[in-house]
Amino acid sequence: MGKIAKVIFVPILCCLIAGCTDMRILEDQGMIQAISYDMATKDKGSDIALIKVTAAIPLIQKDNLQKIIESTATSSKDARIEFSSQTDLELVNGQLRTVLFGKNIAKQGVINHFDTILRDPTIGLRSNIIIVNGNAAKMLAENYQEQEPTYEFLDRLIEKQVDENIIPDIDIFQFMRDVKDDGIDPVAPQFIQRKNHIDTDGVALFRGERYVTKIDASKGTLFSILNKKMINNGQLNFDWPASQQGDAEFAALDINNSRRHINVYSSPGSNQFTVDISIKVKGSITEYIGTKNLDNKKYRDGLGEKMAESLEKQTQELVIFTQKHSVDSIGIGKYVRNSISYNEWKNLDWRKVYPAIQVHCSAEVEIRDYGLIH
Amino acid sequence: MGFFRKRYKKALLTKENQETQESVSLENTINQFRECSDLVHNALPELQVEYLYIENLVNEQKVKEYLVEPFDTIKFPDVSLILTEKRYKKTADSRSLYKGILNGEAAIFFKDEAYLVNLFGPETRPVNESGTETVITGPHESFNESAGQNISLLRRRIKSSHLKVYKVSVGKVTLTDVYLLYLENVANKDFVEKVKQRVESVETDGIFESTMLVQMIEENPYSFFPQFLTTERPDTASSKILEGKIVGITDGSPSAFIAPTSFFEFFNSPEDYYQRWAVATALRILRYSAFFITVFFTAFYVAVITFHYEMIPRTLLSTLLESRSRVPFPPLIEALVMEFTIELLREAGARLPTKIGQTIGIVGGIVIGQSAVQAGFTSNILIIAVAISAIASFVIPNYIMSASIRLVRFGLIILAGIWGNYGIILGIGLVLVHLSGMTNLGSSYLIPIAPISTADMKDILIRAPFSKLKTRPYQAQTRNPYRQKKK
Lengths: 374, 487
Hints:
The complex is a heterodimer. Chain A has twelve helices and 15 strands. Chain A has helices at 3-18, 76-84, 103-106, 111-119, 136-141, 150-163, 172-180, 220-227, 297-324, 332-339, 342-347, 350-353, and strands spanning 29-31, 34-39, 51-58, 66-73, 90-92, 98-102, 128-133, 187-193, 198-207, 210-216, 230-231, 235-240, 249-266, 273-289, 358-369. The model of chain A has no long low-confidence stretch (mean pLDDT 87). Chain B folds into three domains: 4-118, no CATH class; 147-261, no CATH class; 275-444, no CATH class. Chain B is of the alpha+beta class. In chain B, a hairpin with a 5-residue loop joins β10 and β11. The A-B interface holds A 14, 18, 21, 23-27, 29, 31, 58, 60, 65, 92, 94-95, 97, 122, 124, 152, 155 and B 304-310, 312, 314, 317-318, 320-322, 324-325, 327, 330-331, 419-420, 422-423, 426. Chain B: Keywords: Membrane, Transmembrane, Transmembrane helix. Chain B: It is a multi-pass membrane protein.
């Protein structure tokens, strides 16, 4: 190939490789930031369940920071067609950060609505998924903070709560992976709309793709300790009412580091599993109301033991709660699966086995620092 | 004193005239220099001596010392005695006679013979601080337009008989002296031969600058990038000589060129060696970052705003949207207009006298900084991008390299406007292919990255403490690689 031919062909080839990406000039795009799914009220005499989809896109006007577009349709794809006729902007998904599901639609299963989200390559798999206890569209449409649109507020709220381990860090990728995995059931953070703010409602537990129940927000950190191998942040509160053993005490532990180990013991050939969950928490006391002087190592160790005891009890309760609802949200199934052969796991109906297995929780609490009181 | 003072106007010396062989005679010489009003012709009839020199090339003191005084006191028989003194060189060749006169020598005619005595000494600029390569710590001297002065600056720094100064005359008309300086026991002989040969084979009527000469001897004349490092600083030049490289000095030019050079040397400043190693390393990293900012920042802005809205972080989205919403142009045009304006400002500032130059700064600052945004002409984020890339481009110590990089940036901005990030990557790819294909005296331009030389990275990408810098750079291909005692 001659030099001139190269000079001509190389740019032409470059053009071809580039494909046909459309220009997406920033100010012409309606960048959907959050999208919500709810059940719509059914028309009388109609069998088809309608869903209500709303999307929040940023606006540049000073008084109104977000524009909500909504549509009622039979599927999320129909809804999208209706969306685009409501705005002069080109609707794009590349900035999608939060997917909200109303509790009522989550109970029916969420997979169908994920289809578009998963297929569109511009949607990052790190977008959050949350469940709204109530009407998701209504929660998204309302404004809670001045100078800050709701989608942004929500995004920051999730980020902060995840950082403090009050709610699990669940993005689309993790959620879908857990849905497809047979050794774990998915979870999602759940929020609720109060009078003029959004509140954390807890952790929504799913059985497969369907919403089952929730863990209260006060147990969120506890769930994170059980759910994750290690956490580095969070706070645990312990409350002991006055009894014959001693006076009433209250202690708040700021977690520096918490590790969880799961050991599975199984007797071959049978479906009997014993699972040991051991938790090691290192933390600092940030608040203590009680009679004991923590400067004394004896009392300090005593308090640590009391905390561990309480922690064991609470985690045990949490596991039993999931067993009662037959949802393996902690992912014990994955550990069981690793401990046995593939065939054994194939023949096992984990959903049925899980509620019956023995789970034993043990905890250790190490007090690193208890502060100074002058 | 009885002198006849005659001035002859001689025609300009032309190439043809110079090359014809003539016999050495006063008439021929005067004829050769006809219509040159600066030719001084003096006759001493009682001594039968006549002499010629060019007034503007000689030093008055020397004229007095070598011409006036010796012949003033003597009688006719002693003339031949004086002319046997060493400083009077007998010349039988008319061409070297003319060349001598043009180099500031005086031609003395006695009987049928001609003698030359060197009176050269025109006014030169004193050694000043460098205007283009300033440092805060370190020597402030810089080269000036006199090659002799420049060589003296280097000789004073390297007191070694191994320092060779090879002279070549370049330019058929200008006969500019080019001196190649190198350490004989360190520099690679092939490189020395190559440079000598290339400089000698330059065929042109004249050169006035080292940066002009190197464009005639480089291997990739069509490239955007300078291939020989040029410096105005004697400390840089002498450090390169010590590294085993060759330094070229052109008479009449304040810059010296260095061969061979790698791309990364353009990002090093002599001050790196005068600073503590940690500071110097940080400065080098800063300069490489500046390089990337200059090349990519505006292009990246264009790509993101035109194609990749997904990449914008949540916190920046509303600001960007707000500032972009008022702009009537597509991002590519917006960016090109702004970059063009900045280049206008820069060029205007460079050409204007310093006193008016300040006005440019104020006008530019106010017009671009505020009015353009207020009028909705551009977005303020772009102003920041353009301004930061412009500042970053000035961080690069070598002005010629910095100008080349600014030019490459325009290409990338256009590519980014057409194909987005793909275009940027394409552009980098092309530049990288081009850079890695370039050679300098046959050695790679991208040393020490390609071919990789980990030892050199200590002194190119970072600046390791001196105890770690024991070897001369790989690129110099020296026979004598250790610069410190081996332990």
